[in-house]
Design a protein that fits this description.
The chain has about 170 residues and is mainly beta. About 0% of the residues lie in helices and about 50% in strands. It has no helices and 12 strands. Strands 3, 4, 6, 7 and 10 form a 5-stranded antiparallel beta sheet that branches. A 5-stranded antiparallel beta sheet has the order 8-9-5-11-12, with no helix packed on it.
Amino acid sequence: NNGVSNTLTVTVTAPAVTVATSLSNTATVTSSTSDPVSANNSGTALTTVNPVLADLGVTASDNPDPVSTGGNFVYTMTAVNAGPDAASSLVLTATLPLGVTYLSSTPTAGSCAYNATSRVLSCTLASLASGGVLNVSVPVTAPVTATSLTLPVSVSSATVDPNSANNSTSVVTS
């Protein structure tokens, strides 16, 4: 029929990108009927896809410090998301120093698991909102031999982090 139009809506999922990316989509129509104006049989739409970004950071502390040999103390690790978007599949990891005895771990959200063989504590959280904070408290027992203890801590997520320089830290206990 002359002058009849139809609309077709196609919904797509944009790819994950690390920088703003321009995508184009061209649609073309054809017909078995002769078209006297074929110049208007296609059109292109441009769309800008912006990256999802989450600037994560991590800090760590210990209390008390110094600690007596064989004494209990607590590591506190804090992951923060400075945004601008939520961080998905967040993982906070710490490797306990040799001689330190792991007692437990308490995250403010998510869950933690400790591997005694590798001495790695891994805490996971499905999503940390922009501006969100995850605290993990880890009571431990110091070794019976006096030594300096270093706890390396890192945070990561599936979301692109524009500033990875603040994703790891360490705390030294005397």
